[in-house]
Amino acid sequence: MIGQTISHYSIVETVGRGGMGVVYKAQDTQLGRFVALKFLSKKFRSDRRAIERFRQEARTASALNHPGICTIHDIGEYHGQPFIVMELLEGRTLRQQLCDRRLTIEEAIACGIQIAEVLGTAHAQGIVHCDITPANLFITEEGRIKLLDFGIAQFVRASCPEESSTVHAKATHSTLTGTVRYMSPEQARGRDVDARSDIFSVGVVLYEMLAGQLPFMGADFRETIHQVIYREPEAVRNINPSIPVDIEMVVSKCLEKRPERRYSTAAELQKDLMQGVMPSKAVIENHGAPSALAHPSAHVPQLMDSAAETQEQTSPSLMETLPDWMTHIAK
Predict the structure, then answer these.
(1) Most buried one in 135, 180, 260, 307, CB count within 10 A?
(2) Residues 120 and 261 in one domain
(3) Separation of alpha carbons 91 and 112, rounded Å
(4) Which pTM value belongs to this model?
(5) What angle do helix axes 105-124 and 322-330 make, rounded to 10 degrees?
(6) Which residues are known catalytic residues?
(7) Are residues 72 and 109 in the same domain?
(8) CB 253 within 8 A of CB 206
């Protein structure tokens, strides 16, 4: 499709492929800006469920207004092919970063704070993401975490626009969809989920960033599901003793098997992560930012599914913005 013009979007290059979709860089000929065009793969164009998930992704993300969520500009169809027009992101996914090297403790906490912040916005609108994984977390060149792929997000009943109103709400339906190693026990059982399910998944991501390995690593699908539901993970400080005790407690609370024992809201999680990062603030201000994330730039917008990663490309350091971020949250 390179060189074609679809509506008023001129396709420039392919920037990512996944199992369910392909993403192109395109120029908006009316506004003179570059955007990302995301098409559903040909093999899914007669799959009504896949098409609905594709459209739901656009509807859900467009309902949220937050710098940590990829902006949806438009949705359309070209010769029977549905496509989404979205913000063109430059950087790399957290998965790509973790494949490169383990984050420092400060970097991991900074990522966790931003993830909790954007989740708070989604939960306040009654949206449970249901697939929080490093593949669906994008680090921009400015060090901003972007939450991607709302394709399997579920809506919960909320009586008011406050995040806390979604705490005990239940999704209208549930099926076993998502990424198994990052699922909450209730999601792995195919039960209804609420905001606390996402908080469990954030705990898995935090554990991976801090320990350099996943808390649940079964040899196959069945064993992994069993571990998620029944097995307590090894304490993260047993793997990385330099992790502060307070941060280990945060991770452990996120990974409680019973939802009522976890953080009730993403705001509570964010608050505890902020408190945990404060002891490192003086070190960062006196000695500069910790080791930076690799930074050659790339255009890598979100793909349809977390199972298939985008091209391995790099972005500027998250830590280049960390001192200012920490100064801001300390006020």
Answers:
(1) 135
(2) yes
(3) 18
(4) 0.80
(5) 60
(6) 141
(7) no
(8) no
